[in-house]
């Protein structure tokens, strides 16, 4: 999980402008995750105020908008992000900061098989090494 940059909060009344929460979803190799289903909730304490959804594009980017009254920048308000792809689900959250825009990124902690990974690399290396060993033995016997 990657922490988001937090902008200082404004004191006083609830904001009278919409909030755009946007960010990127990456796999554990830091490659963008295309077509991930993204759900972002505006939460005050433990109460969900509003839920917005989007799907990531080829760069892993998503963007959702919370209307006036559906978010606040007080100490108990935060945004919860859940991203889902065929290989699994992961989440991140951040405190709601003052301002029209806020970034909330997520890096999957697990490896997404479609993009490879350590296990796939080791398996491939083992197969290639085995084929090479058989070829060497076969050539020597000739």
Could you tell me how far the N terminus lies from the C terminus, measured between alpha carbons in angstroms? 55 Å
Structural class per helix/strand content? Answer: alpha/beta
The CATH topology label of the largest domain is Protocatechuate 3,4-Dioxygenase, subunit A
**SS field, number of helical segments:** 1
**SSE order, one letter for each helix or strand:** EEEEEEEEH
Largest sheet: 4 strands, mixed
Taking all Cα atoms into account, the compactness measure Rg is: 22 Å
What share of residues is helical?
10-25%
Mean pLDDT: 82
Which regions contain 5 or more consecutive residues with pLDDT less than 50?
3-10
* Number of spatially distinct domains: 2
In total, the number of strands is: 8
Q: What form results from the Cα inertia axes?
A: rod-shaped
| Strand composition percent | 35-45%
Per CATH, the architecture of the largest domain is Sandwich
Instruction: State the CATH superfamily name of the largest domain.
Output: Aromatic compound dioxygenase
Indicate the CATH class of the largest domain.
Answer: Mainly Beta
Would you kindly provide a written description of the structure presented here, covering whatever features stand out?
The strands form 2 sheets. Strands 1, 4, 7 and 8 form a 4-stranded mixed sheet that branches. This protein has 1 helix and 8 strands. It is an alpha/beta fold and 142 residues long. It folds into 2 domains: 1-110, Aromatic compound dioxygenase (Protocatechuate 3,4-Dioxygenase, subunit A, Sandwich), CATH 2.60.130.10; 115-142.
């Amino acid at each position: 999980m990657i922490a988001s940059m937090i902008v200082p909060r404004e004191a006083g009344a609830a904001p009278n402008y919409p909030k755009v929460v946007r960010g990127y979803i990456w796999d554990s190799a830091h490659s963008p995750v295309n077509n991930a289903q993204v759900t972002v909730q505006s939460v005050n304490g433990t109460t969900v105020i509003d839920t917005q959804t989007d799907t990531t594009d080829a760069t892993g980017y998503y963007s959702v908008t919370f209307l006036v009254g559906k978010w606040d920048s007080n100490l108990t308000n935060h945004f919860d992000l859940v991203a889902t792809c065929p290989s699994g689900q992961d989440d991140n959250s951040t405190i709601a900061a003052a301002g029209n825009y806020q970034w909330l990124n997520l890096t999957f902690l697990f490896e997404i098989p479609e993009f490879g990974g350590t296990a796939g690399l080791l398996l491939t290396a083992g197969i290639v090494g085995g084929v090479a060993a058989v070829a060497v033995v076969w050539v020597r016997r000739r």
